[in-house]
Specification:
This protein is α/β, with parallel strands linked by helices and 207 residues long. The chain contains five helices and eight strands, in the order E-H-E-E-E-E-H-E-H-E-H-E-H. Keywords: GTP-binding, Hydrolase, Nucleotide-binding, Receptor.
């Protein structure tokens, strides 16, 4: 992207510059199956203009991409989405959204590299499309929370049933969210940060 300053010289926009007070930046990935709302979440919560790599879906994907349940979707992420959000004046999260289609999963390992944690977005109409995301995070030892994205007409299941279907331990937070809503997406990221903090809290030994 070719940004211009007020003087006309190339450079970042003023609103994209990090505040001088920022002391820490953390990489977070947003993962899940095809069409679960990853690009939407990055776009809704990012305080800078998000970088997206969405391309129009073509006939080349017919028979290759599984679009069951999202037949009306016309674009797909082919590399990653990127955004940024400041949770406070000292902590910034860099957000990386992964591509959902299986033919682009080879990019996931690079996006997971250096990530402190992840949000797994799920669609209750198509839980199975996010199973691989959970498995890959577990294999790499990346802590994550599961966010149940709100889709019109999607079935509502008790949390215990969703946990059982995804084989999730009780220690992994599961929360409701609406990826279209900035406040809801921010709350999801805050839940991840609190979970990460809890994992790094050392409980004093009892004498």
């Amino acid at each position: 992207m070719d940004y211009r300053t007020s003087e006309g010289a190339a450079g970042p926009r003023g609103e994209d510059l990090l505040p001088a007070s920022v002391a820490a930046a953390v990489k977070v990935v947003i993962v899940g199956g095809f069409g679960v709302g990853k690009t939407t979440m990055v776009g809704s919560v990012s305080e800078i203009r998000p970088l997206t790599t969405e391309e129009t879906m073509t006939q080349a994907g017919v028979g290759v991409d599984d679009i069951a349940g999202v037949e009306r979707k016309t674009e797909t992420t082919v590399a990653m989405d990127f955004g940024r959000i400041s949770l406070n004046d000292k902590l910034v999260l860099y957000l990386f959204g992964t591509p959902g289609q299986e033919r682009f999963w080879f990019l996931w390992d690079g996006l997971f590299e250096g990530a402190l944690g992840a949000v797994v977005l799920i669609d209750t109409r198509r839980l199975e499309v996010s199973f691989d995301a959970v498995g890959r995070l577990e294999e790499r030892g990346v802590p994550f929370v599961v966010a149940v994205n709100a889709f019109p007409g999607a079935p509502v299941h008790p949390t215990a049933e969703l946990r059982a279907a995804m084989d999730l331990p009780d220690s992994v937070p599961m929360i409701d969210c609406d990826a279209r809503d900035r406040a809801s997406s921010r709350d999801t990221l805050l839940a991840l940060v609190r979970y990460l903090q809890s994992l790094h809290t050392v409980t004093p030994e009892t004498p």
